[in-house]
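Can anyone check this?
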Amino acid sequence: MTVERIQVRPDFDLCRMPKGNWQIADDHSDRKFSEQAINNDLAMYVHAGIDTFVCGDIYAGVEERLGKFRKFYRQLRGADAANKIKVLTTYVPYFLDEDALRKHSKSDVEKTINRSLSRLRQERLDLVQMHWWNYDIPGAVDMAIWLKELQQEGKIHHIGATNFDVPHMRQFFEAGVDVVAHTLQYSLLDSRPLNGMVDLCRKNDCYLLCYGVLGGGLISEKWLGIPDPGGPYLENVSLDKYYRIIQDMGGWGLFQELLQVLQRIAKKHQVSIANIACRYMLDQDQVGTINIGARDANHLKDNLRVFSIQLDDEDVANIKQVLAKKTGPLGDVYGVDREENRDALEEVKTEYFDVENGQLVKKTRAPVILTGDAAYGHHIHQK
C-alpha cells in the first residue's frame, strides 16, 4: 500500500489524505489531551506517510500543538525529516466580530501571519488558506493581495482559500493571486462544489481540499441503524455541523439509506464504510485531498486502506442512485451556512447524545470554559 500524493505545484506536493486537527482543539469538545499523547499520535501519522496536517488560527490551541510536535519530531528524527512535514493553516480575520472586520488592514494580516509562524515554529508557512466570513463587509480581495505581498516577502509558500463561493473565488483569480487550493465541504452529503466551483477551479489550476468527507464520524458503522437524535445535540461540534447537513440533504432516513448502501459495498471489498466514502471522493474531478479529522491515531490503520481499494462501475452506480434522491444542500459553496450563520450556532453543548453499544444515549457534562489567552476559539463559553 502506497499513500497517494498530489503535485499541487512543481515545488509543492501533499499527501492526499491529510490529518485534520479541529478534533484536538480546546473548543471542539470536552476532551483533554496531553502533549505527549498528541506527539506520539502525530508521529504515527508521519511514519505511515500522512505528513500533511490541517489546522486554523482560530482552532484553540492547535497551531501551538502542531508547533510543539514539529520540535518533538525534529529531535526524534532530525531536521530533514521534520522539514518534510507540511502544515496547512487558515487565516480567519476577526471571526464573528463585524466591527473589527470592517477595520481589517494589512497590519492585521502581518500580525496574524507572524503569530502563526511563531506558534507553528516555522520560518515560512506552507499554505495559508484565507477565509472571509462576511461578504457584506468588503475586503476579501484586499486580504488576498496582502497575503500575496507576504508571500513575496518569503513568509508564505503558497496561498489557498477556504469556503468561498464562485464569484469571490473568481475575483481572487482575476486579481492575479495564485490560489493553489480551495478547502471546502465536499462529500457524499454535500455536493455544492458541483454548482460551478469544480469548473472554476479546473480552469485556474486550483485543487479542492475536501473536508466533511466522513461527516465528522457520522458516516460510519457506529451510526448505522441509529434513530434520529432529533437535532444537532451531539458529542462535539463536528457532529452537530454535519447533522445539519444531513437535514439539508434530505433527512435522517435518506442518510440511513446511504449508510446501508455503503455498508454493502464495504462488505464486498472487505473494508469499512469510511473507506468507501473516502475512495469515492478521492476519485472525483479536481479533488486534491480529503482532509480526515481525528483526535488520535485509533482509526489510522483503517483509514490507510482507502489507498488499496478501487470502486467498480456497479459500486459507483449504487452510490449515485442514493445521491440522486438528495434535496440539498442547495446553492453555492458554504452559502446556506453563511445565510444561517451556522458557525455562530456551534458550541460544545452540556446535554448531548452519543452512541454506546449500538444505542443512542443522552449524556450531560460541565460547560467547556476557556479563559485568558486560551479563549480564542469560537465554539466555547468564554470568560
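Reply from J.R.: I decoded it. The chain has 15 helices and 15 strands.
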